[in-house]
Amino acid sequence: MTDGLVLDSIGHDYDGVPVVKDVSLQVRPGELVCLLGPSGCGKTTTLRVAAGLEAPRLGRVILNGQLVSGGGVHLPPELRHVGFLFQDYALFPHLDVLGNVTFGLRSLSDAEREARARQMLAQVGMEDYARAWPHQLSGGQQQRVALARALAPSPSLMLLDEPFSGLDKRLRDQVRDETLHVLKSTRVATLMVTHDPEEAMFMADRIAVMRGGEIVQMAAPEELYNQPRNAFVASFFGEVNLLEGVVRQGNVATALGNFPAPGLGEGTRAEVLIRPEGLSLSPAPEGEAVVLTARPLGRSSLVHLRVERAGMAPCHLHSRLRSGTAPAEEQRVTIAVDATKAFVYPIPE
Ligand SMILES: Nc1ncnc2c1ncn2[C@@H]1O[C@H](COP(=O)(O)OP(=O)(O)OP(=O)(O)O)[C@@H](O)[C@H]1O
C-alpha cells in the first residue's frame, strides 16, 4: 500500500478540449509538492481531480492506498478526508474563530472538539482569538484560522490553490513561512498550486512544472534550477541570456565561444541559455565585451554588456555579480562562463 496521494495517468477535458494529459505524480506523507506553471496549464484542474471535485476522464486517483477515482469509482470530496486552503479563505462569517475550527470535527464530543480546535489555533499562533469574529481579523490572521480549520480533522491530504495570492507582499512572505512550518510539523501530504516559481521553490520539496496540461519535469527545486530539462523550465526559474547557433562537430559556436552540444547532430539549430550569475567579468583592454550599465540591486549588481566578436552579430547580455564587484561603465571586459550555469537545447523545428 502506498501512503499519500497517487495520481496515475490522469487525463481530463472540458467540452472535449483536453486540459490535463497523462499526469502522474505521487505526494508522500510529510511531503509538499507544488504544481507550477503558467495560467491555463491545468494546475487547478489537476488539484480538483485530486480533491474529487472533478471525476477524471482517464486514469486513477489513489489516496492512502484506496482507489478514490477511476475504474468506475468516484468518491466525493467529503469522503476523501482532504483539507482545502484556497485563495479566498472563506471563513464562515456567522461563526467565531473557534466555531470555524470546530466545524469539521463532527465525530467528537463537544469538549474534545473544543480542545482539538484550541490546540490547532495554538499551532497557528491564534489561540488568543478564539472568540473573535472573522471580520475582526486581518487577511493574514484569517488565513491562519483557515489553515487551522483545514488541519483540525487531521486530513490525509492537504490541497492548496494559490493560498497566498490575496495577501500583500510583506504579509505573504510571513504567512507563507508560517504555513510551511505548520504543514511540515503535521507531516500531512500536501499538493499546492502556484504560478510563482519563487513561491514554489520556497515551499516545495518537489515541483511538478506543467505546460499545456502535461508535466514537463518533476524534481526537487535545486535540480530544476541546475538541471532544467528544456528551455521552458530553464527560463521559468529565473532570467537567462539566450544565444543561438548551429551545431558543428559537437559544439555550438556563439559570441561567447563554443559550447558542447552532446547528442545533437551536425547542423542542428541550438540555443544556449546562460544564467546571469554564470557570467563573470575581468577588466581587459582587448576584451570582447563592453559594460553598458551596472545597476546595484541590493546584494547583487546587474551588469548590461554588449559583446562584439568578429564575424558574429553583436549581442546584449546580463551578468549578475556580487554587490560592489561590478566594473565601471564603458569598461572593456572578458567574460568567463560557468559551464554549470549554461544549458544547450535543440531549437524545435
Ligand atoms: N469548468 C471549466 N469549463 C471549461 N473550461 C475550463 C473549466 N475550468 C478550467 N477550464 C479551462 O481549462 C484550462 C485549464 O484550466 P486550469 O484552471 O486547470 O489551469 P491553471 O493552470 O490552474 O490556470 P490558472 O492559474 O489561470 O487558474 C484553461 O484553459 C481553462 O480556461
From TrEMBL:
Any one GO MF annotation of this record: ABC-type ferric iron transporter activity
Listed Pfam families: ABC_tran, TOBE_2
Highest taxon in the source lineage: Bacteria
Domain ABC transporter: 5-237
GO cellular component, as recorded: ATP-binding cassette (ABC) transporter complex
UniProt GO BP: quaternary ammonium group transport
Keywords: ATP-binding, Cell inner membrane, Cell membrane, Ion transport, Iron, Iron transport, Membrane, Nucleotide-binding, Translocase, Transport
Annotated InterPro entries: AAA+_ATPase, ABC_SmlMolc_Importer, ABC_transporter-like_ATP-bd, ABC_transporter-like_CS, ABC_transpr_FbpC, Mo/tungstate-bd_C_term_dom, P-loop_NTPase, Transp-assoc_OB_typ2
Name the record gives this protein: ABC transporter
